Structures are given as structure tokens and as C-alpha cells.
Amino acid sequence: MSGLEIRTRGLVHIYHAEDHDVAALSGVDLDVAAGEMVGLLGPSGSGKSTLMSLLAGVLRPSAGKVFVGDTEVSAAAPRRLDRLRATEIGLMLQGADRNLLTHATPGDNVRFAQQPARRAGRMLADPAEVLAEVGLAAAADRPLSELTPGGLQLAAVAVAISSRPGLLLCDEPTSQLDHEARDQVLAALAHVNRTHGTTVVLVTHDPDVARVLPRTVTIRDGRIGGEGRSGEEYAVVTADGFLPLPGHAREGLPPGTLVRVHQVGDHYEIRPERP
Ligand SMILES: Nc1ncnc2c1ncn2[C@@H]1O[C@H](COP(=O)(O)OP(=O)(O)OP(=O)(O)O)[C@@H](O)[C@H]1O
Description:
This protein is α/β, with parallel strands linked by helices. It has helices spanning 48-55, 78-87, 106-119, 127-133, 149-160, 179-196, 207-212, 247-252; strands at 6-16, 21-32, 37-41, 63-68, 71-72, 89-92, 167-171, 199-203, 215-220, 223-229, 232-234, 259-264, 267-272. The protein folds into two domains: 6-243, Rossmann fold; 245-275, no CATH class. It contains eight helices and 13 strands. Helix 3 crosses helix 4 (127-133), helix 3 packs parallel to helix 5 and helix 5 (149-160) runs parallel beside helix 6. The chain is globular, with a radius of gyration of 20 Å. The N and C termini lie far apart (59 Å). Adenosine-5'-triphosphate binds next to strand 2 and helix 1.
């Protein structure tokens, strides 16, 4: 399967906690083209994991729509979602052990992960081949307890790509790894992206990881706060015409500041009205 595109429109998610509600996402419009590799950045609690869960169909949004390929994930019936996650969307949760059967070998983990896709009639690569793709061929039959933290994370990548999904979602795949292991995991994800055209979205807090990604999207307070392209930072106009100010402009333009927006030739100027 080649890559799947993502489209979200007006995505809102509210958690209903016991005594209060939390608005985790407040209107996210995100487009990711098939075959892109995108990093999701943002401070803790900004809504990154919530967005990943909505993309994977693990959560249903309070409002708005999520499309993955031709499927409206936000409206899909539970059986369709099960099938999507078995065959088309690979989800890697934060923490390698949450993705692995700890008493099975990497080979058995991949075999087990492939079962739902096989039952759905998919022709799949041999587990040894999947492990070789992430550089773990030699560890196929070793107990997981013998693997390094980086090796475990690579095994989790192998499990997530075991049915050759068109979309791979990874929540902090490189956190708590040393630089060498981090680079290996990143290289494995980039390899999958490049070789199979798999669309990859990964959450990261690591500026070194963000720097090497072709595109980053920063989530701030449940909204898209900006984008990075090859290290260059941009603000993004939302579908309803709002423009979140980048961090450096927020200091000089505090809430409530009146600004004039002037067109000057082919660009725009924002001029604050000084009292
Ligand atoms: N199950 C839940 N019930 C109530 N509130 C929640 C729940 N899960 C997340 N939240 C809240 O929603 C907001 C967004 O959380 P989310 O985990 O999506 O952020 P994040 O950017 O992934 O954070 P981190 O980088 O720390 O993982 C936070 O205010 C969080 O406290």
C-alpha cells in the first residue's frame, strides 16, 4: 500500500473529566499529503497525543472531521475502524513496551501483529523481512529482555509497520533514547517513508529530531500554532482566517492589542495602534 493523505477540518476535542471539561483541541485544520513525513511539536498538554488518537480513530472528535485517505475516520463504524487499524493505519504508542508482547520474541511480535490483516486477506511480508527493514534481522528470535531500549523501539516500529500501513503514527518514538539509538529509530522511520511511500506523523520534543524533518507542525493550546519547513518557521492562516502569532511576536503584541493589517506591494504589514 502506498501513502495515505490526512485531512482534518475544524477538529475539536473535549475531555469530560469528573468536575470539569478540558478542551484539548479547539479547531485544528491539518493537511498532510500522501507520502509526507511530518513532526508534531508543542508544549506538554498542547493536544498532540489527542490529535494522534483522533487520526487513528481511537477517539471520536467532539466536533469536526478526520479523513485518512478516502475514509472519514471520525464517522466510521467500529468494525471499519478495527479494519483500518489492522490494515491501513499503524499506531505506535509512547513507550516501546505498550506496543509489544513482552514475553514473545520480535519475530513473534510481528507475526502476532499481522494476524488481523492476514484474516482480512492481506498478503504480507514475512516477519523476518519486516524486522530486516528496521535493522533487527539478527534479533528476530531473541527474547525482548536482551534488547537495548533502542532495539525495543525498533521492534515496536516493526510491529507498527507489520501490515504495511499507508499511515504510520508514532507518539514520541525517540524519547528516552541515547543519540545513537534515536538516530537508528529515525532512520528506520525515514526508510519506511522513502521506500514504501508511507505517510509518517511523529510526535517529538527533541529539537534535533525536528531539525532533520522536512516539515513540522507545532500545536499550541489545542490549535496549530505554526509550521516549520526545512528549519524555517511559518505562521499558518486557519480555514476561518485567523492567524496565530508566532512566539516572538506575542511579547510585543499582548492580548487586546489593536493592529492594522496593510497590504504593501506583495506582502502584508501588521502595525499595532499605539495609545
Ligand atoms: N483522558 C483525559 N481526561 C481528561 N483530560 C485529558 C485526558 N487526556 C488528556 N487530557 C488533557 O487534554 C490536554 C491535551 O492533552 P494531550 O495528552 O493531548 O497533550 P500532549 O501535547 O500530547 O502532551 P504531552 O506532550 O505531555 O504528551 C491536556 O490539558 C490534558 O491534561
